[in-house]
Amino acid sequence: xxxxxxxxxxxxxxxxxxxxxxxxxxxxxxxxxxxxxxxxxxxxxxxxxxxxxxxxxxxxxxxxxxxxxxxxxxxxxxxxxxxxxxxxxxxxxxxxxxxxxxxxxxxxxxxxxxxxxxxxxxxxxxxxxxxxxxxxxxxxxxxxxxxxxxxxxxxxxxxxxxxxxxxxxxxxxxxxxxxxxxxxxxxxxxxxxxxxxxxxxxxxxxxxxxxxxxxxxxxxxxxxxxxxxxxxxxxxxxxxxxxxxxxxxxxxxxxxxxxxxxxxxxxxxxxxxxxxxxxxxxxxxxxxxxxxxxxxxxxxxxxxxxxxxxxxxxxxxxxxxxxxxxxxxxxxxx
Amino acid sequence: xxxxxxxxxxxxxxxxxxxxxxxxxxxxxxxxxxxxxxxxxxxxxxxxxxxxxxxxxxxxxxxxxxxxxxxxxxxxxxxxxxxxxxxxxxxxxxxxxxxxxxxxxxxxxxxxxxxxxxxxxxxxxxxxxxxxxxxxxxxxxxxxxxxxxxxxxxxxxxxxxxxxxxxxxxxxxxxxxxxxxxxxxxxxxxxxxxxxxxxxxxxxxxxxxxxxxxxxxxxxxxxxxxxxxxxxxxxxxxxxxxxxxxxxxxxxxxxxxx
Lengths: 334, 258
Description:
The structure holds two protein chains of two kinds. Chain A is mainly α.
């Protein structure tokens, strides 16, 4: 039983956590791609930026969460989401729009977004330093230990408050996005533009509005993902470096341009990572007795070492590009 | 009749050959003007220039007396200058009805603040647009496929949808790019009747590119013949048919011997 608890703590819970983060990031990447047709490399840095906005606000109002019993950072997150959304629109107007207006090839925009990545990383380090920080300033992180009934399980299932919030938020965000894209006029205009930009223009759809809204959604989701991840672990300026590859892998696995694919891709990549670094020897231990004498189970049995976790999304990416280049959901159009 | 579209001395080249070469023409308000010419004459390029999908290298386009060269395609759309595409364009992942509902400009639902703060306003307008779209889809005879994804419609149905799109807003000029190509004869009769009705009852001006000479003869007066990027001749269909230069342009020299 303890082994199963260990599995739940290390695979199910942490898998869901990283999957939700990747999914929210990948949705942003995929939305930007489907509207503007370029891979936005600065996306992970928008996550970091958003999380730092939250940190800044939390430093200003550290006590605000005590009244409600939720982390202050979470209460202040919506404000930071708006700030990042507006920053994203500002970045677009300043750096990407002039390029678009000159009808450059998508690759130029991609390289431009790499420039924005470096710039954002530099700015964040300049203002906030290079160390890692905790998002909890005046409070402590709530950790729930669920004791299982029965005598076999002596270890509890451990879930932290931010993990629960993250999961609830991710589900809510996905439902809201689905409603927005299928029901609202603006969402339909987004789908129309990703489908056929020429026709969208001659149908009188204001493409500038659609682009601005795309950046707002991407920026807001990135902030939420960055903040909730930093609440669960710590906030580091190089957060984006470890997120970029899994997020792009998730977007491509799901089929670029397909928001539901991005969610599926996020879960595939997230769980592949956690399963790959999981120590399977723990699960096999109860069967030790059944093995013939002299057969010893190794104490550590994982597909890759934890330090090579980042190779897993890379492997999935290569595999999907070889066997199913359009992604699981055949992307391209919202 | 005053002219609503005035193209003057337009040039356009794509790298090598000059596609539109000192082209000047005018379209009278309330007319159904035909634009014919051999393949490669520059008809579609000229449409792209008038609708704002392409910028001319030089020359001017006037719409209702106003110089519109600097306006974007969606701004021209808002002034009532609409177009259809030679190869029917549609939003493949939206239904036929949603395709039509996409069209009317300045819907409050396209404004982010209205979407969240004035849902009532958005709803009311959405209802109106929907009612109009249902009328139009009935008019173009696609009512039975209105909830079908537009990508699944047949080529001819997509063409009808293109025409329907122009009826969703108060158009003044509609540029029809080979609306009849790929449409079967029965649908074609409907199409022609609808175009005439829109012209007569709603005062639409049409500029029509067409290879089907029967349709041109039935629908268009006057007809403009474009060859090698400039206007060769303009007149009624009978004048055009009996013009030896036109016959030569279409069939080559020597084809004029009765």
